[in-house]
C-alpha cells in the first residue's frame, strides 16, 4: 500500500505542476500533507516536516548566501569578461547562443556545485535570450543537462556517494567512466546545436544592431505641449520594459549610453552600471577562486563558506551600509523564492522518508527485477537510475537502493565497480528532479515555470542518460 501511495503522490505532484493547476510551492506542501493523512500518519506530519527541514536547512542556507555572493559578483562585473566572450561567439545567432549556453554550463560545472553553475549561466545568457525572444526553456534544459553530466565529477556528489556506499575508491569509479561521460557531453552539445538550429529557423539570424534597432522601433513617442513649449517623452512598451529579476539581467533595450533606466542591478550588456568595481576586479576574482577551492577541498561547510564570502564581498565592494542594503534588496526576490522552494521541498521529502514510502518503493523496484536479469544487473542499475534518482534524493538512491542492487549483482558475478559506474547514468535527468534545490535556482532566475521546464527537459535528459549508458556498455565500462 505504501508503495502505491508513494508513486501516486509523486504522480499527482508532477501532473498538477505540469498542468499548472498548482504552484510548485503549494504542491510540494499540500500534496504530501494530504497523502500523509491517507497513510494514517497525519499525527506525525509535524515530526516528518521538521525532520525534512532539518535535513535541508544547510542547503537552504547555502543557496541563500550563494545567491547573495554571486549576485554581488555579477553586480561588480566579475563575470563580464565571460559574458563578453560568450556574446562575441554567439553574434546574436540563436544556434550559437544555445551551444554557448551548453559550453558555459559545462565549464562552470567544474566547481561541482549546480547552484553556482545555474546562477552564472543564467546571468550571462538570460539578457540575450530575452532580447532575441528565444525560448527560455531551451536555455534551462540545455544548462540542466550539461550540468547533469558534469555532476558526476568526484567532488560533485554522486560519485562520492557511490564510492562511500560500496566502499570503493572514487577515482576507480570515475576515471574509467570518462569516455562514456564525454560521449554524453558531446551528445548534449550536438543536441544544443539541433535545438539552436530549430530556434534559428523560427527567429532567423540577426545582429545585435538589428535587435537594438527593432527594439527602438517599439518605443512609443508621446508628444505633448507644456507651458513653455513642446517636448517629447520616450516610453518603452511593456514587453521591452520587463526585467530579469533582481540583479540578474534585463530585457529592456538599454544601450551602453542608456544604462541607468532600471535600478535592479546587472544590466546584461550594459558596461556602465553604477555597481561596477573595476579596481577591485582581482580581489573579487581571488576571493571567488579561494571560495571555490575551499569548497572543493572541504575546508569548511559550504553554507559557512558562502556566508563568510557574502559578508566579505559586500563589505569590501560596498563599504557603506546604504549600498549594502541596496544590494541585499536587489537580490531579495531570488533569495526568497529559492529558499521558500527548498523548505517546501522539505515537506515532500520528509513525508516520503518518514512514512516509509521511499523504502517500500525502492524495495518494490528491486523485487520486480526478474531473476534472469541477474547477470545484467549493471544494465538494470543504469536503467533504474533514471526514475529512481528523479523520484528520490541522491542520498536515498546511493545509500538505500544501490547497496541492495550491488548485492544482487554480486550473486551473479557483477562487480561493485560496474554497479557503481552504472549508477551514475541517471544524473542528467536527476538535475531536473523536483527534489533538487538547484533546479529552483535555474527556473527561478530564468523566469520559467517549473512545469514547462519539466515537460521540455525530461525526454531529452532521459535520452542523454541512455546515450551514456550505451556508450558505457559499448566501451566495456559497464
Automatic annotation (TrEMBL):
<dbReference type="GO" id="GO:0016020">
    <property type="term" value="C:membrane"/>
</dbReference>
<dbReference type="InterPro" id="IPR014738">
    <property type="entry name" value="Citrate_transporter"/>
</dbReference>
<feature type="transmembrane region" description="Helical">
    <location>
        <begin position="58"/>
        <end position="79"/>
    </location>
</feature>
<protein>
    <submittedName>
        <fullName>Citrate:proton symporter</fullName>
    </submittedName>
</protein>
<feature type="transmembrane region" description="Helical">
    <location>
        <begin position="460"/>
        <end position="477"/>
    </location>
</feature>
<feature type="region of interest" description="Disordered">
    <location>
        <begin position="250"/>
        <end position="270"/>
    </location>
</feature>
<feature type="transmembrane region" description="Helical">
    <location>
        <begin position="373"/>
        <end position="390"/>
    </location>
</feature>
<keyword id="KW-0812">Transmembrane</keyword>
<feature type="transmembrane region" description="Helical">
    <location>
        <begin position="173"/>
        <end position="195"/>
    </location>
</feature>
<feature type="transmembrane region" description="Helical">
    <location>
        <begin position="335"/>
        <end position="353"/>
    </location>
</feature>
<dbReference type="InterPro" id="IPR004680">
    <property type="entry name" value="Cit_transptr-like_dom"/>
</dbReference>
<dbReference type="GO" id="GO:0015137">
    <property type="term" value="F:citrate transmembrane transporter activity"/>
</dbReference>
<keyword id="KW-0813">Transport</keyword>
<keyword id="KW-1133">Transmembrane helix</keyword>
<keyword id="KW-0472">Membrane</keyword>
<feature type="transmembrane region" description="Helical">
    <location>
        <begin position="303"/>
        <end position="323"/>
    </location>
</feature>
<dbReference type="Pfam" id="PF03600">
    <property type="entry name" value="CitMHS"/>
</dbReference>
<feature type="transmembrane region" description="Helical">
    <location>
        <begin position="280"/>
        <end position="297"/>
    </location>
</feature>
<feature type="transmembrane region" description="Helical">
    <location>
        <begin position="134"/>
        <end position="153"/>
    </location>
</feature>
<feature type="domain" description="Citrate transporter-like">
    <location>
        <begin position="15"/>
        <end position="426"/>
    </location>
</feature>
Amino acid at each position: 500500500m505504501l508503495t502505491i501511495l508513494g508513486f501516486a503522490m509523486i504522480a499527482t505532484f508532477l501532473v498538477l505542476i505540469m498542468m499548472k493547476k498548482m504552484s510548485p510551492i503549494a504542491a510540494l506542501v499540500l500534496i504530501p500533507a494530504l497523502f500523509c493523512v491517507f497513510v494514517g500518519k497525519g499525527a506525525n506530519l509535524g515530526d516528518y516536516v521538521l525532520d525534512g527541514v532539518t535535513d535541508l536547512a544547510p542547503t537552504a542556507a547555502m543557496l541563500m548566501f550563494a545567491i547573495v555572493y554571486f549576485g554581488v559578483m555579477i553586480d561588480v562585473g566579475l563575470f563580464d569578461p565571460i559574458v563578453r566572450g560568450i556574446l562575441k561567439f554567439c553574434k546574436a545567432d540563436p544556434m550559437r547562443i544555445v551551444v554557448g549556453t551548453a559550453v558555459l554550463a559545462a565549464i562552470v560545472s567544474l566547481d561541482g556545485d549546480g547552484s553556482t553553475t545555474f546562477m552564472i549561466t543564467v546571468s550571462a545568457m538570460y539578457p540575450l535570450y530575452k532580447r532575441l525572444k528565444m525560448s527560455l526553456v531551451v536555455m534551462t534544459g540545455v544548462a540542466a543537462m550539461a550540468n547533469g553530466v558534469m555532476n558526476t565529477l568526484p567532488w560533485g556528489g554522486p560519485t562520492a556517494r557511490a564510492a562511500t556506499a560500496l566502499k570503493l575508491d572514487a577515482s576507480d569509479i570515475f576515471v574509467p567512466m570518462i569516455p562514456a561521460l564525454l560521449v554524453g557531453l558531446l551528445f548534449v552539445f550536438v543536441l544544443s546545436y539541433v535545438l539552436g538550429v530549430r530556434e534559428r529557423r523560427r527567429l532567423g539570424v540577426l545582429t545585435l544592431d538589428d535587435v537594438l534597432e527593432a527594439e527602438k522601433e517599439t518605443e512609443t513617442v508621446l508628444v505633448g505641449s507644456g507651458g513653455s513649449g513642446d517636448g517629447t517623452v520616450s516610453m518603452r512598451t511593456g514587453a521591452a520594459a520587463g526585467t530579469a529579476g533582481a540583479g540578474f539581467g534585463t530585457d529592456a533595450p538599454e544601450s551602453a549610453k542608456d544604462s541607468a533606466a532600471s535600478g535592479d542591478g546587472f544590466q546584461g550588456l550594459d558596461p556602465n552600471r553604477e555597481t561596477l568595481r573595476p579596481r577591485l576586479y582581482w580581489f573579487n576574482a581571488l576571493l571567488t577562486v579561494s571560495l571555490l577551492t575551499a569548497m572543493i577541498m572541504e575546508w569548511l561547510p559550504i553554507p559557512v563558506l558562502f556566508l563568510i564570502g557574502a559578508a566579505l564581498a559586500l563589505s569590501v565592494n560596498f563599504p557603506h551600509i546604504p549600498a549594502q542594503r541596496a544590494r541585499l534588496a536587489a537580490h531579495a526576490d531570488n533569495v526568497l523564492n529559492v529558499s521558500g522552494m527548498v523548505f517546501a521541498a522539505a515537506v515532500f521529502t520528509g513525508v516520503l522518508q518518514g512514512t516509509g514510502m521511499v523504502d517500500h518503493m525502492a524495495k518494490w523496484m528491486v523485487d520486480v527485477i526478474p531473476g534472469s536479469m541477474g547477470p545484467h544487473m549493471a544494465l538494470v542499475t543504469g536503467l533504474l537510475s533514471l526514475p529512481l534518482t528523479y523520484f528520490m534524493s541522491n542520498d536515498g538512491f546511493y545509500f538505500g537502493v544501490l547497496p541492495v542492487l550491488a548485492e544482487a549483482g554480486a550473486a551473479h558475478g557483477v562487480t561493485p565497480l560496474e554497479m557503481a559506474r552504472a549508477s551514475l547514468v541517471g544524473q542528467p535527468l536527476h538535475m531536473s528532479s523536483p527534489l533538487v534545490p538547484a533546479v529552483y535556482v535555474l527556473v527561478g532566475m530564468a523566469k520559467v515555470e517549473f512545469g514547462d521546464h519539466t515537460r521540455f527537459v525530461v525526454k531529452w535528459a532521459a535520452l542523454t542518460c541512455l546515450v551514456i549508458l550505451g556508450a558505457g556498455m559499448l566501451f566495456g565500462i559497464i
